[in-house]
Design goal:
alpha/beta; Nucleotidyltransferase, domain 5; six-stranded mixed β-sheet; globular
């Protein structure tokens, strides 16, 4: 029987993490990361929200307004420092998109990272359903409500259902990583997965430059 996601109330901040939030996440060692945008084209559709959560359930939503992105780099320096810190593993689902979005809009060179979608494709070869909803339903027994996925994330006043949706994803990424990592180790594919994760920032950079099919025949 499936359950609802954990009931986590995030801190919502504008433009950047606070110094205390940055210090907390730097100590965590592992941080789940997700983004919300106005669409699926990073060159056209701007970044609106960055969500974070650690293993203790400390969740934060950083709202990025249009005027924030009009400023010269560096933008959101505390957030960028966290996402680039070599001592903090950033855990994402479909990291290729988020990495491209964060690179284009904030100048982030995100590393190190762990992509649960990539891990799922390497570990769950018995299925072609690798979306976050399917992964957490099977491996964690949790039902995600995706009704708010396609809504206006640029609104300065997010609705309660948008906040619940955005935070549900990041609260589940670290437990999902644990389950997938156990499967990868069982099948002898952990090293392969890590080599794949290292390639994701390059793939995202190629996407931004218009070379999405570079390795195809």
């Amino acid at each position: 029987m499936t359950q609802a996601p954990p009931d986590v109330t995030p801190e919502i901040v504008n433009g950047d993490l606070t110094e205390s939030q940055l210090a907390m996440y730097l100590r965590a060692g592992e941080v789940a990361v997700d983004t919300e945008t106005l669409g699926l084209n990073p060159l056209r559709d701007r970044l609106c929200v960055v969500q974070l959560c650690d293993r203790a359930g400390h969740a934060t939503m950083v709202q990025i307004q249009r005027e924030d992105l009009a400023r010269p780099l560096p933008r959101a320096p505390h957030l960028v420092r966290l996402l680039e810190d070599p001592g903090v593993l950033k855990v994402l689902h479909f990291a290729r998109f988020d990495t491209a979005t964060l690179r284009h809009h904030l100048g982030v060179r995100l590393a190190p990272l762990y992509c649960t979608r990539t891990a799922s494709k390497l570990a769950r070869t018995y299925t072609d359903r690798h979306g976050l909803k399917d992964c957490v339903q099977e491996l964690l027994g949790i039902e995600l409500d995706k009704a708010s996925q396609r809504t206006d994330w640029a609104s300065p006043d997010l609705k309660p259902e948008q906040v619940r949706y955005a935070i549900a994803d990041v609260t589940l990424l670290l437990p999902l990583m644990d389950r997938l990592e156990a499967m990868l180790k069982r099948e002898g594919r952990s090293t392969l997965a890590r080599e794949c994760f290292k390639a994701i920032p390059l793939m995202a950079e190629l996407d931004l430059l218009g070379f999405a099919g570079l390795f195809e025949h």
